[in-house]
Predict the structure.
Amino acid sequence: MSTQNDTPEMGRFLRQIVENYLEEGQFESGIAILDQMRSPDHKPSIIHILHLIFISLHSSLHDTRLDESGTEPAYDSTALLLQSPRKIVKQSKSALILSPNTIVAAQRLLFSFISTNSPSDIAAALPHYPENEIRRQVSTEGETGARFGFDYFDSPIYNQSSALMNSRSVWEILKAGYTRRAMQVFGTPKARGKGKQSLKARGLGRESSFNTSAELEELDVVGEDSWFLLEWLVELFEKDAEIVQAQGLETFSSIT
């Protein structure tokens, strides 16, 4: 039995404020705003949780560049400070960067949501197995829009984030190289104003975690940068189990 409740989703106006930052690639600012809006009176948008998960799967030890240079270091931050203000602004706008502070902020916010909101509301962003008929029906509706219960917006990592729900299970997300495989399937994100990702990517066809070959079976069960997500999943499941046990319903989590 589910522990879902009737808590409404964060309103469109509040979601738009967060998404304005995400669309500009200002991920750390968007995360900070989302944290300020966190409340037990409304549940977070599924696509916002998916963005947090995708961001949290990157290394918190160094800057990660997401656009044309892939995971290459973006630039020497110390050297950049010696440049003119105009060059600093130009460089920062031309690259999509995930800084260690951004990664840590995303990870902290995911844990914070567990203390604020219902685990089942958060787990709605996770892939489920076996896939139920209602979820299968929803996943085939429309080209964009409320395909998984959330609207499309022009985030440079929208496709990579929303594809998390298309994995065969949460354990596929934990495997080494998940973010790299996402980039291979959907292409590297582009900075604001440099073009959108293809409609094919937006279509979110069933990729089965991007790879069904024997190569996937040889990957580490938990990637080097995925241990945080494993800890978060365990806490999420344990919190849900506590709730259902308190309700006298089951002795295990209903969202696993």
